[in-house]
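FAQ: What does the model actually see?

It sees only this:
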Amino acid sequence: MKKLVLLFLLSSSTVYAQRQFTIEETVFGPGQFAPKTLLGMQWATNSDTFTHLDPTYQQLLARSANSDWNEKVIAKLDDIKVALEKVLPSENSPYEVFLRIMNG
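And it is asked to produce this:
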């Protein structure tokens, strides 16, 4: 009987400790708890690393299990544009449309 009373007291204390949500938290709150969308996610082969774009599409980021899934910038859009302009000729190139799209 004592064990049953002790179990009841322990379980009731955890129920009492739960916090009540406000109206704002119940109406506008679910978005805070939703997972973030990672754009263009791609796993690296044979590794615990994946890459994705930032929300502004300006940087390519990598996350690795070795770094506790912290973001690391791999490439920036401006650097890629400069590299493509050096490699691809600008006149009469089949890639000219691609460069125009990237330059906006």
